[in-house]
Amino acid sequence: MQSDGVLRAAVASKSSIERCRQYRRRILNVSQRVTALHIAPAFSCTEIVDVVFNELMRHDDPADIFLMSKGHGCMILYVILAERGILTDGDLDSYCTPNGRLGAHPDFGVPGIAASTGSLGHGLSIAVGQAYAEKLKGSRSRVFCVISDGELQEGSTWEAIMMASNLGLSNLIMIVDNNDFSGLERVSIGHPTVYPIAEKLSSFGWSVADCDGHDAAELRTALQSSASGRPHAVVARTVKGKGVSYMENENLWHYRSPNEVEYAKAMSELSEPER
Amino acid sequence: MRNRFAETFYELAKDDSRQCMIVADISPAGSMSRFRDEYPARFINTGVAEQVMIGMSAGMAQRGLRPFAYTIATFALYRPFEMIRDDLCYQNLPVTVVGIGGGLSYSTLGATHHAQEDVALAMCVPNLRVLAPCDPLEVEAMTRWCASQEEGPVYLRLGKAGEPLLTADLVEPWLFGKVRKLREGKTHCIFTYGVITKMALSVAEELEAQGISTSVIAVPTLKPLDTESLTVALQAHSSVSVIEECAPHALGLEIEALSQRVGYRGAVSAFSLKDEFIHCYGSHQDVLSAHGLEELSIATQIRAVIR
């Protein structure tokens, strides 16, 4: 594994835009080895996980915790963990194979994985427990937890939202990957009363910011705008399948892997520099 | 049982800052209240919210703490069942889920408060060890074990209050994974666990009075089962029975399966709760009776099978 300082320098020398283009390409490469992986849900939170992992998290003394509550978006976490040497390229290449250790949902015990998630509505409660434990121990560790907007339909998520503010967990930062899709349909159509999200969280005692979830600068500002003594939420407006034109807002790509032609088109779109 | 659990936890937790109590809106009686007053940061009430009680406990255990998640058995196990399965058992974390009022202890509150399938349900889940003490002394020993073990999750099924001491005369201490002989007999053997052990001992006395020498073996660890000792007990008696305050999918089923596996030729009778919701309100015994669990009736049925 590269030392944290060397790695941070290497990663920081690239822009978030460059890093995220590479991450998406790496995910697409994995997609050619397996028939199914959750590409679109990973693409919607690519910039979120990138900015948190590469720019905001402390990785030592004391290390912050990153918990992917929307476990189906774990491909972006895997590629970043591989880049950091916490996982290996071999791990990515053996994704979802009997000899590998990475599945379509993250598994606690695998390096870099803070919790086994996949069933929705679990991660935030676990993050609340982790954040509380760190406070109790007097540690400065923070917990970053990415949830999906679909998870806001789970009652357990609201139990955790209330508990986090009851406990004054100022070391907990939740990012809502607000891509407006759950498995079946648009959240705004099927479950419109989830909105407005920011006002709800605010009324539950959280400090809240919202931003464009694909804009690193906006994410940075929103993530660092927390108020003292309260848990902090960032409602990140995102696009499911972001970065590949034919995947954007097309729920087909929640789970499908592209065929050869589709793969080539996606890779070509992701090789063009952003204008 | 409730008080002995609280006293034991207090004694352990005052000297071990990893021990935490996460409750879901249950009144902290006795020593639990003292723990809350003296160590408020390690006593968390999630309110009427059992899913976050279990999820939080998982997160705390991952970060080095040793939580007990504590509430009425139905709400401790059934409501957050998927959190117990995924967050505690799949991740194999050292958290003790304490179910108060296991079985039909809340006898006037109706089936919403009857944990009549808890042991059977808990036994199905990988990594989850299942403990059911028969008296306050076993509660104390198990609580100490739960607080010190690091291997993974435990479901600790307690009764409520007022249970008599049944194991005070035993020389051997309670040990995880081991059965305990409460009464020595020659002909018949009753396997039991939990609060209903008192009834099992009365059944044994009744059988003894009718000339049937009867052993009673407590099985306080339902998972993993002490199959070695159970096999020895099967082979030492010409018939056996199981008396349990649980749906008919727990110890009775296990003993029947074990007796088949080892080629046991004696009669095996299982007395459990019915596979029904009973709309009966009264004393604990009233509700057990409605499920067909009464000492004279059980003794009569055992005698009928033997003869």
Characterization of this structure:
The complex is a heterodimer of chains A (275) and B (307). Helix content of chain A is 41%, strand content 11%. Chain A has one domain: 3-Layer(aba) Sandwich (Rossmann fold). Chain A has twelve helices and five strands. With 275 residues, chain A is α/β, with parallel strands linked by helices. Chain A is globular and about 50 Å long. In chain A, helix 2 crosses helix 4 (46-56), helix 4 packs across helix 11 and helix 7 (123-136) runs parallel beside helix 8 (155-166). By secondary structure, chain B is of the alpha/beta class. Chain B has two domains: 2-157, Rossmann fold (3-Layer(aba) Sandwich); 180-306, Rossmann fold (3-Layer(aba) Sandwich). The mean pLDDT of chain B is 97. Chain A binds chain B through residues 108-109, 114-116, 118-119, 121-122, 124-134, 136-137, 155-156, 159-160, 162-163, 167, and chain B through 20, 41-42, 44, 46-47, 49, 51-52, 54-65, 67, 82-83, 86-87, 90-91.
